[in-house]
Each structure stands twice: as C-alpha cells, then as structure tokens.
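User: Okay, second chain of the day. Same drill as before: sequence in, structure tokens out.
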Amino acid sequence: MSDQFPPPAQPPHDGTPTSGATPGGTGGTTPPPPTEGYGTPGGSPPPPPPEKKSKKKLVIGIIAAVVVLALVAGAAVVAVVALTGPDKHTLTITKTAGGMDRDSAKETELKTQLDAAEQQFKTQAKRVSYVRSGVYDQDDSKRGPEGALVFLGAKIDGQQNPATFVSSFRKQAETNGFKTEKVSPGDGGGQAVCAYQGTGQKIAICAWATNDTMGELVPTVPGYDSKQLAALLVDVRKDVEKKD
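Assistant: Same drill. Structure tokens below.
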C-alpha cells in the first residue's frame, strides 16, 4: 500500500511497534484484523501470493504509526509553559494545502488513529483549545515520496514559548533514537524542527510552533529526509494557519 508509514526502529513513544503490532495513542497494542478465508471445498485455504502477504504485514504493522510519531510532538506540549496573552492564529483543514489535495477517504480509513492523536494532544496539554487533523495526497515525486501526509495541529489557549516547544521536541525525539535539526518555519514566524531516523530506512516528522499554535507533518510512506519534509511543512502551513 503506497500510502502507509513504516514504524521507526525506536519510535518516539514508550512502545516499540513491530510489523505485527499496531501502537495506540497510549502505547498499547491492537491485534491485527482477522484474515479473511479463501475457502476451497474439501481443502485448506491457499496461501496468499508473496507480495500480498508482505503488503498485509505492512498495513497491519504501520497504519497507526502516524499516532506514534505524532506523540513526539504531543509529548513536547507537556513541557510548554502556557502564559497569558492574545490569540493570534487559527488552524483550519483546507481542501488543498501546500498544493496537495485533501484525502477524505484516507481520513476515514485513519479515523481511529487520528482521533487518538487528537485526544493525546488535548490530554497532555491543559491549555489546548482545539486540535485539527487532515490527510493530504503528495503525488509529486520531485517533492518527495508519493503518498499521504498527515497534518496535526493544535491551538493553544494563551501563549507558549516556541523555543521551549522545540527544545522539548528535540529532547523527546533524541531520547528515542532520532536525530533532530532546527529548520526554517517559513514566513509565519515561530520556530520549526524536524526529527529523523539517522540510519536505515528514511523516516521523518517535522513540526512548527508559534506563541499560540503548533503543527506537524507526518508522512505515511518511508523515504523522506528532513529537508524535503521541512519544505512541505512550510507550504502546508501557509494554507492551514491564518493570522486573526
């Protein structure tokens, strides 16, 4: 399945997903769905073709990895100190973002995982007034691997220090075996950071933070480096975040 995301060897969460486990928002696991029978009269079901078996393992093991990587930013929210101050931004899931079309069908498929990630944000930071999530199709190979990208954003009721967010994000990611680097947040200000797997299969997640918002972009396919994903984050941010 071209738009699924492989779990990191050391995900930014307190559980370690494998190809046969699906991590949940609290670090638990969900058993894989039952295999549908192929039923041949008077005989055993034939084994699936090798490529289908491989694909099925991929789907079972990674469909909820969006939540696992999202938690690295969610955990960073815990360390954000909310201050009093005016609200300056709003977050909206638009029909297109960064030149990519929204994929409502994929949002329905990932609804359980997206709901869990949203709830995690709300419970980890008391000053989150709302969370937005959406899935966008990245179909330009020049921008990175083709497949779905998940956007998750939170509105802070008050103010936060973007530098504190970035510092907490980096600490959480590096504790779980990821490398990190600060990247450009674009014209919207604030600060941005990416976490990526330094060895093996390329895996990345990028996030930005302002005084009252945070947003992150999570690929559901492998192969992104931090430079590619950071560029997409800036483009998506221009559409989903607006100043009041």
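Confidence is low (pLDDT under 50) at residues 1-47, 50-68, 78-82.

User: Thanks, on to the next one.
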